[in-house]
Design a protein that fits this description.
The structure holds two protein chains of two kinds. By secondary structure, chain A is mainly beta. Chain A has strands spanning 9-12, 18-23, 33-37, 44-47, 61-66, 69-74, 83-91, 94-97, 101-105. In chain A, the strands form two sheets. In chain A, strands 1, 3, 4, 7, 8 and 9 form a six-stranded mixed beta sheet that branches. Chain A is globular and about 40 Å long. Chain A starts with 8 loop residues before the first strand and ends with a strand. Chain B is mostly beta strands. Helix content of chain B is 0%, strand content 51%. In chain B, strands 2, 4, 5, 6, 9, 10 and 11 form a seven-stranded mixed beta sheet that branches. In chain B, strand 4 (34-40) and strand 5 form a beta hairpin. The model of chain B has no long low-confidence stretch (mean pLDDT 96). Chains A and B meet through strand 3, strand 7 and strand 8 of A and strand 5 and strand 10 of B.
């Protein structure tokens, strides 16, 4: 079965850039999706088809996908961005989620 | 606007069957999209359970497939989950979500989730 790897945690200072990676075999050949989940809340779709932001998602969130790694970048990180972030792909007719990355804004 | 709402027992006994419904409002299930179930054990990550189209076509997580049935009721505009032979490891928040299986496979709308505890 397909597996995705994410760093368990990322720390970032307010105003700085947070980079969250998601790795998988030939991941760049698939579409990657990203979700944000704050404590006690449902996940929210942040990025779809590698780099497209749904309506209402701030421009500071951006995505890319190439080779074996998809990347979610948060530019000018704000305190409100402290959350868990999950990547997701579709592989062999199944949904695969990454293990999640906790972003802490120090 | 489109809303999804999970409902069902919050407590299920070990070895019994967990049953949940997801009511969809503001959008007809028969129009399109897939509709999925995702769970999240306390303090852990997301796990996809399965997804269904209004025609009844389904995709399941291979690790749960032997215990899972997802069905759809277009007349009631809802879809349902049954998970058999539950154990404490099935304790989780269960989310229903709308899934775009056209070009991608993202879940663009989620319910608020419902906690199901497996305990005697």
């Amino acid at each position: 079965s397909y597996e995705l790897t994410q760093p368990p945690s990322v720390s970032v200072s307010p105003g700085q850039t947070a980079i969250i990676t998601c790795s998988g075999d030939k991941l760049g050949h698939k579409y990657a999706f990203w979700y944000q989940q704050k404590p006690g809340q449902s996940p929210v779709l942040l990025i779809y088809q590698d780099d497209i932001r749904p309506s209402g998602i701030p421009e500071r969130f951006s995505g890319s996908n190439s080779g074996n790694t998809a990347t979610l970048t948060i530019s000018g990180t704000q305190a409100m961005d402290e959350a868990d972030y999950y990547c997701q792909v579709w592989d062999s007719s199944t949904v695969v989620f990454g293990p999640g990355t906790k972003v802490t804004v120090l | 606007q489109v809303q999804l709402q999970e409902s069902g027992p919050g407590l299920v006994k070990p070895s019994e069957t967990l049953s949940l419904n997801c009511a969809v409002s503001g959008y007809s299930i028969s129009t399109g999209y897939y509709w999925g179930w995702i769970r999240q054990p306390p303090g852990k990550g997301l796990e996809w359970i399965g997804s269904i189209y209004h025609s009844g076509n389904t995709y399941y997580n291979p690790s749960l497939k032997s215990r899972v049935t997802i069905s759809v009721d277009t007349s009631e505009n809802r879809f349902s989950l049954k998970l058999t032979s539950v154990t404490a490891a099935d304790t989780a928040v269960f989310y229903c979500a709308r899934q775009n299986l056209g070009v991608g496979s993202e879940f663009d709308l989620w319910g608020r989730g419902t906690l199901v505890t497996v305990s005697s």
